[in-house]
């Protein structure tokens, strides 16, 4: 399914992404590409939480229906594809403090680094 996302950028801030169909579901990235890359994962995890809590998953809005949405002001709308059938699973990772510090120093997002490593 494709859901509408809003890309926000204020001065001196990271690029933020929000989803009008999922209030409270947000993500951010230091660059535009990073924010767009993290958006599907954030949305999938949010939907997974809703499923686990027994909440209904909304049908995707159409852009015309959001024309007067105040959250859309100064934002760029784009579509995010999410496969609801594939369930996400949370996990914890144990690492040395020095490894975590190295990831943080490199400017990485911890879960993103784990995801990238898993795909190699």
Characterize the structure shown:
The chain is an alpha+beta fold and 120 residues long. The chain folds into two domains: 88 residues, 2-Layer Sandwich (Double Stranded RNA Binding Domain); 30 residues, no CATH class. 33% of the residues lie in helices and 18% in strands. The chain is built from three helices and four strands; from the N terminus they run βββαβαα. It has a four-stranded antiparallel β-sheet with strand order 3-2-1-4, with helices on one face. β1 and β2 form a beta hairpin. The radius of gyration is 16 Å and the shape is globular.
Name the descriptors.
120 residues; 18% strand; four-stranded antiparallel β-sheet; 4 strands; alpha+beta; 2 domains; 3 helices
- CATH-assigned fold name of the largest domain: Double Stranded RNA Binding Domain
N→C terminal distance: 27 Å
Task: Give the low-pLDDT segments.
Answer: none
Q: Radius of gyration from the CA trace?
A: 16 Å
Helix content: 25-40%
The largest β sheet comes out as: 4 strands, antiparallel
Side-by-side strand order of the widest sheet: 3-2-1-4
Describe the oligomeric state of these chains in a short phrase: single chain
Question: Nutshell version of this structure?
Answer:
By secondary structure, the chain is α+β, with helices and mostly antiparallel strands.
